[in-house]
TrEMBL record:
UniProt organism field: Stenotrophomonas rhizophila
UniProt protein name: Polyisoprenoid-binding protein YceI
Keyword set includes rRNA-binding: no
InterPro entries per the UniProt record, alphabetical: Lipid/polyisoprenoid-bd_YceI, TTHA0802/YceI-like_sf
Top-level lineage group: Bacteria
One Pfam family in the UniProt entry: YceI
Amino acid sequence: MTAVRTLLCCLLGLAAGAARAEPPVTALPPAQAAPRHVMELDTARSRLGFEIRTRLGQRIEGVFPRFEGRIDVLADGRHQVHLRMFTGYVEIPGKDRYTGWMRGEEFFDAGRYPVVEFDSVPYDPQLVEKGGGIHGRLILRGVSHPETLQVEPASCPRAGYDCDVVSRGTVQRGRYGMDSWQLALSDRVTFVLRARLNEALKP
């Protein structure tokens, strides 16, 4: 009988130790509900580029000839924007040497990081009419930081269809490992989006 009690005590002690060793169960965050509608960017009529200035004040303008984007219309009526820019196609029009440098490892490093992504938090669609900031997260060269797109007030009643929705977002390139040429170029890079939407909503 004594042996049985001893065995039971050992087993209970092992069970208690295992319970203490197990990490607490953490609930997973709720899954994002599927959007009610999806509005695709009309990439033929939209323009996505960037600007950077030299230390002497000269403005260098680049473009992303290949990009994609969409706006999710959520069940509660808010919108959420998603953008993808493909760095292997980035160019400085008319300046082949600058284009090669922008695609190279000292800037966008297209070989290792072929996509720049921006995903916003949900926002009120009236922001597009009045102007304001759309907050989100930028992933550039594998580094992620919160950033803000500043949207200009709409210039027509059907912004995105009859006129561009213009937004700008300025980032510090050094935060993303793009810290070469600091003596020649400003640390600030401004992304500029002039967006048009396809007419049809996708269910």
